[in-house]
Amino acid sequence: MRHVVAGLLNKQIASALSISEKTIKIHRARVMSKMEVTSVADLVRDTERVGIGPASPELQ
């Protein structure tokens, strides 16, 4: 979730975590569903509200 909030693309997240892009798509969809949001902008707002920041630069 922190990588999505940081604005990274699925391909970039997959590379950073050394997992497949398809896995990232599944995780992203589950996060969006569990957070009950329909857009990344809504996800960013909600994470900022509760104090969850984007992934740290060294992880990107």
Order of helices and strands: HHHH
CATH class assignment = Mainly Alpha
Query: Roughly how many Å apart are the termini?
Result: 13 Å
Shape-level CATH architecture: Orthogonal Bundle
Number of helices: 4
Q: Topology, please?
A:
Blueprint: H1 2-5, H2 10-17, H3 21-34, H4 40-50
Structural overview:
The radius of gyration is 11 Å and the shape is globular. It is an all-alpha fold and 60 residues long. The chain has a single domain, classed as Winged helix-like DNA-binding domain superfamily/Winged helix DNA-binding domain (Arc Repressor Mutant, subunit A, Orthogonal Bundle), CATH 1.10.10.10. Helix 2 packs across helix 3. The model has no long low-confidence stretch (mean pLDDT 91).
What tags apply to this protein structure?
mainly alpha; globular; single chain; 60 residues; 4 helices; Arc Repressor Mutant, subunit A
Summarize this structure briefly.
By secondary structure, this protein is mostly helical. The chain contains four helices and no strands.
